[in-house]
Amino acid sequence: MTTNAASLRKTFTISNDHPAPGSVEERTAFANIQQGFGRQFEKIFPDKLAPRTVVALPSLSLDQDILSKIKGAVHYEERMLCLLMLLRMPLTKIIYITSIPVTDSIVDYYLHLLPGITGQQARQRLTMLSCYDASVKSLTQKILDRPRLVERIKQLITDPDSTHLTCYNITPLEKTLAVQLGIPLFGTDPDKFYEGSKSGGRKTFRSSGVNLPEGFEDLTTKEDIVKALAALKRKDPALRKAVVKMNDGFSGDGNAIYKYPAVAVDDRLEKNISETLSQQLKTVAKDVSQELFFEKFREMGGIVEIFLEGDIKMSPSVQCLISPAGKVDIVSTHDQLLGGDDGQVFIGAIFPADEAYSVPLATEGRKIAEALAAKGALGRFAIDFISVKQEDGSWKHYAIEINLRKGGTTHPFLMLQFLTDGKYHADTGQYLTASGNKRFYFASDNVSHEKYKGLTPQDLMDIAMFHELMYNGAAQQGVMFHLVGALSEHGKLGLVCIGDTPEKAKEYYDKTIRILDHECN
């Protein structure tokens, strides 16, 4: 007993010999660690038989006051379970960390999708770790608060030179964890965080020569907002609405819509806007009060820009990848599905984007990505656009936002890519599987209904199998589920519906909703 106890104490000797977060020493250590990532990306990433370890950290290190307003937010950590598909490579190991444990039935569901690998063999190369902490604190902070958990992760890393950390988004917290683990991050150094903010994005759009809405950036106070709203109205007296955005808002929940009252465009315009601001400004997130909105705006800074109007307009996005060498790859294009009263809330996506504009849209995205690569950006990120159809039938694309992180279009595309071993071709706007077949999907993160509450993950799997909704690996079509852990408590889940035509993908989605509604009556 004494020997075992001593052994355990030795095994879990906690090192406090880490540079202070945010210090010059930490920056230097991080830069040194990152130097080795280029070799991983060039040599290990393309080799399906290369030994590697992926530490998956699905931490939503975002503003916790805003994040807490999202129903079932802790279960959004499950969206990166798509990375379990990497286990199809027989020498790949994954360490996946969450705030609360992911039930075995959900893990088994993902493993059964693996082509050419048994679930048991994959399980041997998968380690699921949990903080057992459902609080609103970010997952990365929870890990850093648990030095024994950090030590456990380090012990699971047998070769740091073939291991990397992949995250939902990267902040100084993730940088600190990477240094403590001694492994590189696949993503942009948080010292360049401004480049992914709303204000930084507008500057990059201008320097890239792409269209962007009229507006102003680097604002901080309510007075700044009033002046910007007045300036936009003076420039266009017919302007009806404007959008006020926090620099670091997400999924539209950091936005507010201002509707101009019927006031004269004269010397009293600023005063009239100031006096009516509280009545005319509406936050997109229903649970975010104006008081909280302005408080967060002061902390983060933000922008004001015109609300783009159009009889026919779409909300596409371009997903890009920047390699450590600065090479830009256009990974995908999507048409985003936006909800809410003014179409500001991300609900889901259609892939690929409409063939009428997907190719020129990718060209605009590449201009922005190349500008970001020159500034040192790295990894996967997305650029959001508003596209307005012109009278001559052409489309005009306005860049509105850069997300230097994974987002709502990342996990559906990764699932498709991992399952079909295919590639998106930006020059044609088509996705082709390894066998040359086209594929499309209709995806949503927000399939939600009160009557779905009480369905357990196993209930969902039973329903899906009985009604033949499961993804069919032979046909490479069907339905994949995510956010399953949020179903029982919140009545919420996500779907990725893959088909060989856009219509077939939407048919799978409609069928799934119809069956869930029927089963829950």
Summarize the structure.
The protein has 521 residues and is α+β, with helices and mostly antiparallel strands. It has 18 helices and 20 strands.
List the topology elements.
Elements: H1 2-11, H2 24-34, H3 37-44, E1 52-57, H4 64-67, E2 92-98, H5 104-112, H6 119-123, E3 126-130, H7 139-144, H8 147-156, E4 163-167, H9 172-181, H10 198-208, E5 215-219, H11 222-235, E6 241-246, E7 255-259, H12 269-280, E8 281-283, H13 290-300, E9 302-306, E10 313-314, E11 316-322, E12 328-339, E13 345-351, H14 358-374, E14 379-389, E15 395-403, H15 410-420, E16 423-425, E17 430-432, E18 440-448, H16 457-466, E19 478-482, H17 487-490, E20 492-499, H18 502-519
Parallel strand pairs: 1-2, 1-4, 2-3
Antiparallel strand pairs: 5-9, 6-7, 6-9, 7-8, 10-14, 11-12, 11-14, 12-13, 13-18, 14-15, 16-17, 18-20, 19-20
Protein model, in words:
The protein is 35% helix and 24% strand. With 521 residues, it is an alpha+beta fold. Among the domains are: 170 residues, no CATH class; 93 residues. Strands 10, 11, 12, 13, 14, 15, 18, 19 and 20 form a nine-stranded antiparallel sheet that branches. A five-stranded antiparallel sheet has the order 5-9-6-7-8, sandwiched between helices. Strand 14 and strand 15 form a beta hairpin.
